[in-house]
Amino acid sequence: MTPTAPTPAYRRLGVEERRSQLLDAALSLFAHRAPDEVSLDDVAEAAGVSRPLVYRYFPGGKQQLYEAALRSAADELRDCFDEPREGPLLPRLARALDRYLAFVEGHGTGFSALLQGGSVVETSRTTAIVDGVRRAAAEHILSHLGAAGPGPRLRMTVRMWITAVEAASLIWLDEDRQLPADELRDWLVEQFLAALEVTARRDAETGAVVRALSGDG
Amino acid sequence: MTPTAPTPAYRRLGVEERRSQLLDAALSLFAHRAPDEVSLDDVAEAAGVSRPLVYRYFPGGKQQLYEAALRSAADELRDCFDEPREGPLLPRLARALDRYLAFVEGHGTGFSALLQGGSVVETSRTTAIVDGVRRAAAEHILSHLGAAGPGPRLRMTVRMWITAVEAASLIWLDEDRQLPADELRDWLVEQFLAALEVTARRDAETGAVVRALSGDG
Asked: CA torsion B78→B81→B86→B87, rounded to 10°?
């Protein structure tokens, strides 16, 4: 290592930095191609590094690369939901959805492929990663709603809405984003409120949440 | 073949009849175990037939058995949605949901495992089977609603609700069916109506559907 800054093309990266450079390259490839169609050689080319270097970072091959990319996308997705606990609740949800939809838009095909699982993947492990994101999103929302130890009806409502958001965003991508992102976001927020209102008819806990939501707009 | 009825234990079945007997045996095993844990030998034992016979029907092994079982479950699921076009719309939906929830209850773990995909499966093909059921369900609903060539908002609303129903039923199973099935069914119907009402605020086509639904109760 020299004290002067090396030129970008030959910059030596630390292990974590290099790994994340390779994952970024992989994610941008997954944005246009299915996991099956992305090889470690493609990643080397996209990142401008040698093939042996990519193999050193992902000795498990395609499967390991795919899982690492999925984990990295999962981490990014988790960050989308990380919203400060300030101000009215529904705008917080709207901001989280804006970040989520920007992520979906940015990763395009790769998002669908990563979330739906390609044909090369060992699904039990990748399903667990994706489910982890869904669970994290549900916990974020429930904690913003102030529901510690929520009952089955409230939890089910939140989890159903998260699945519905995921389905909506896959359809949205599939239909070339016909709806503007901000219209989709507002509509998803309204769907959330409506779903909670239906549950509130049978569940006092959800009733309290709905009152809190309509009281702070 | 003799003109007198053979005793059940030694009854000779036609190819289709035998195949469906084996698939029934497989589905009942999948109801208690993940696809990974069901072997062709287990199916032979459960069906009371020889192992070579099962191998003759499923020469592709576990993967072929799994796919055939999934297809058979998919056909059963499609039948759930096949409701006569008579009487008010929401009770039709409620009857379809009753059949669907009975199917979910009857197949238990196997339902989750089949729909979520086990670790042995080649997902692209099995995902296509499951997606086919979702699409068929959406088409059934849209056609009952009288929406030929529905716009993106109405279609998205229906497909989101179908995904949400699927998520709800998996959570329901996972939580040992805490809610009674008829309460879950009513709640899902109410969620459907509420989702349509939200969409109707932005979409005239969905507005007409909501008016038709509330007019025929």
From this structure: 180
**Hey, what's the torsion of the CAs at A64, A65, A68, A72, to 10 degrees?**
-170
Task: Name the percent of chain B lying above pLDDT 70.
Answer: 86
Chosen from A163, A179, A188, A210 to mutate, greatest number of chain B CBs within 10 A: A163
CB spacing of B164 vs A168 below 8 angstroms: no
Answer yes or no: is the ipTM higher than 0.90: no
Residues in chain B closer than 8 A to A163 (CB atoms): 163-164, 166-167
Residue predicted with more confidence, B36 or A46: A46
Band (pLDDT 50/70/90 cuts) for residue A37 is: confident
CA–CA dist A32, B57 (Å, integer): 40
Q: Which string of DSSP letters, residue by residue, matches A17-29?
A: HHHHHHHHHHHHH
Question: For A167, which of B163, B198, B201 is closest by C-beta distance?
Answer: B163
Task: Name the residue of chain A whose CA is nearest to B163's CA.
Answer: A164
Angstrom distance (rounded) from CA A33 to CA B91? 44
Full set of structural domains in chain B with CATH: 70-215 (1.10.357.10)
Q: A159 to chain B: which residues are within 8 Å by CB? A: 167, 171
Region A190-209 average pLDDT? 96
Q: Which residues of B touch A162 (CB under 8 A)?
A: 167
Quickly count: other Cβ atoms within 10 Å of residue A87's Cβ. 11
The reply to whether A37 touches chain B by the CB within 8 Å rule is no
* Dist CA A125 CA A120 (whole Å): 12
Q: What are the structure tokens assigned to A137, written together?
A: 């999103």
Cβ-defined contact of A187 to B198 (cutoff 8 Å):
yes
pLDDT at A123: 59
- Please report the pLDDT score of residue A2 as a whole number: 45
| DSSP three-state, residue B49 | coil
CB A117 within 8 A of CB B117: yes
Rounded distance between C-alpha atoms, residue A4 and residue A183, angstroms: 50
* pLDDT tens sequence across A102-159: 988 887 766 666 666 543 445 567 777 878 888 899 999 999 998 878 998 999 999 9
Nearest to A190 among B163, B172, B198 (CB): B198
Higher pLDDT, B108 or A86: A86
